[in-house]
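Report of the visiting student (M.T.), summer placement. My assignment was to run the structure pipeline on a short list of targets and document each run. The first record concerns Glycogen debranching enzyme GlgX.
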Amino acid sequence: MADIRIDYYPTHEHEGIKFRRGHTLPFGATMVPNGVNFSVYSSAAISCTLVLFERGEAQPYAEIPFPDEFRIGDVYCMTVFDLDFERLEYGYRMDGPFKPEEGHRFDKNVILSDPYAKVLGGRDTWRAQPNWDDVYPYRSRLAFEDFDWENDHPLETPIEDLSIYEMHVRGFTSHPSSETKNAGTFAGIRSKIPYLKSLGINCIELMPIYEFDEWENSRTNPKTGELLVNYWGYSTVNFFSPKAGYAATGKFGMQVDELKTLIKELHKNGIEVFLDVVFNHTAEGDHRGHTISFRGIDNKTYYMLTPEGYYFNFSGTGNTLNCNHPVVRNMVLDCLRYWASDYHIDGFRFDLAAILGRAQDGSPLSNPPLLESLAYDPILAKCKLIAEAWDAGGLYQVGSFPAYGRWAEWNGKYRDTVRRFLKGDTGLVGEMAQRLQGSPDLYPSRGPTASINFVACHDGFTLHDMFAYNEKHNEANGEDNNDGANDNNSWNSGWEGETDDQAINFLRHKQIKNALTILMVSQGIPMILMGDEMGHTQLGNNNTYCQDVEWNWLNWSLVNKNADLFHYAQQILRFRRAHPVLRSPTHFRHYDYVGSGLPDISFHGTLAWRPDWSAESRTLAFMLCGSHAKGGTIRDETIYVALNMYWEPLHFELPTLEPGLKWHVFANTDMANSEDIHQIGEEPLLENQAGFFVGGRSVIILVAK
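After the run finished, the structure tokens were exported:
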């Protein structure tokens, strides 16, 4: 007979189920010898009941009230023995006051998901019709620690060396042209790793993969009859559990292993994985929304509430998570530590991160404890932390986000400046110079690595649509084109929408190449949107949050249709990777501190050494001295870049090189497709070393060899 550990010996029994008082920490459900420890916090509940289900069964097989002595402070804890780990689903009933005006919305009739559940069942297949009569639709389950990581660990690539690719899990491989066995899943991404490597990407940023409900706010488009769903997933049901509907094996409850396998394979191929995390609100919405978990467990703790008990709505989606309450702050920390340690995640991008710096009454904090805790957390010490430094309540902190020496930012000012410059707006040359340098005006002490540079992201026009549409065309969303941003800073190149006009299409491709070039020669960290490298279009829709349709998925046939774009993107990404002078971890000093005869960076115009800073200027050139690469620690080639956003060709006088060096042409976006960009090391000699005509709305890159 096997020995029974006396410290796990049951002391209580209920309907044949044996249990004893559990451990208060960690919160959630944790497997222990002979049983499972359940721990849940509520500051205002008067009682709690543990509800146990067999997987998939309509009704629970047991409900065990926590005895009074099992409550330690505000934590209910219980260890239950002899449970079938594989078949178990669990939840809680919380009893307490229903007094919304005081912040309490308890309802013991509702079975609540565990905020700390590591797996959520019940919605296991994408867009499978839910059972609306289910007494417990989002079912907490256990996760198992039997995955073989085979010595994998986060890659810890220096942030300045990253090229980020923002990706939607479902949209990446759902299109029939992807020819992927497990389309729209983590496994589908795994099959495309060779493509990501060939493109030159070394980091993917996944749009939300936490468990969310695609059926939330689902409706039929009255004009097209198409079903509109929560496609993007910015509405979290549970922060610890990966989305089962994003896993080919989700219907078998294997989403954890499938995601870990993807991450392990990406790491084997030198590709980091960032998660887009949404700690600003949850799927429970405002007072009209569903009670799923947080509201029924401790509404007043988890949400920011007005004095009347309604929900502050700094997220624009009905509620705002109360992130600077110590309990919620600890949950966010526990969550990120879990993803970093158990999933080997390399970094996190925080959606509407300005909310994380608001006090419980909504006012901005000068020293937000959550942001400070994340910055100094020992487990997250090597993770990249990236803020979307604004929120829907009007708090805009680009350049002023509380950084603690750790936080980088989505640089929205980079996006806006480059877009306006590309379409020919005037008065921008001085600001463009700042953006090209990694925005020292915004990040003087933090350095260029604080700037995540992008021209397009999931939220707004794709790069193709930026040069094909003057106005948004969101009619398919069923909101009379009232949703989505109006300030797109786009220009349709002379025709609204798709066209067969060869001159217009050549100009649009040239502008996409211009955008990619500027992005890759800017200091800071470049991020490109999934599909921009092949001319993906959303038909002018700049807010495709509800569109799970073929036109919104990545059409892989565009790789061949727009082969010139894909080839250009490949080469410009390789160029950045080959030249450390483009990836400085510190700001330029604007003088020669290594004795090369050239400053680390110099600006020029149509005349060498004489940039045109005037209000009407649409031209700017700059030269990076290769001897100053990485602060003078590495020797690189000197690079010259000329930007001409005037609509006519202009002659640029070139800086004279030291004897033995000559200018060679790496890229010229004004040239025909076969001549627009060259292989590294095979750049042709520039015939006239004194000057160069740069075509209208064009960019050139020269290398000194």
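Residues 590-704 form a domain with the Immunoglobulin-like fold (CATH 2.60.40.1180). The radius of gyration is 27 Å. I thank the supervising group for their guidance throughout the placement.
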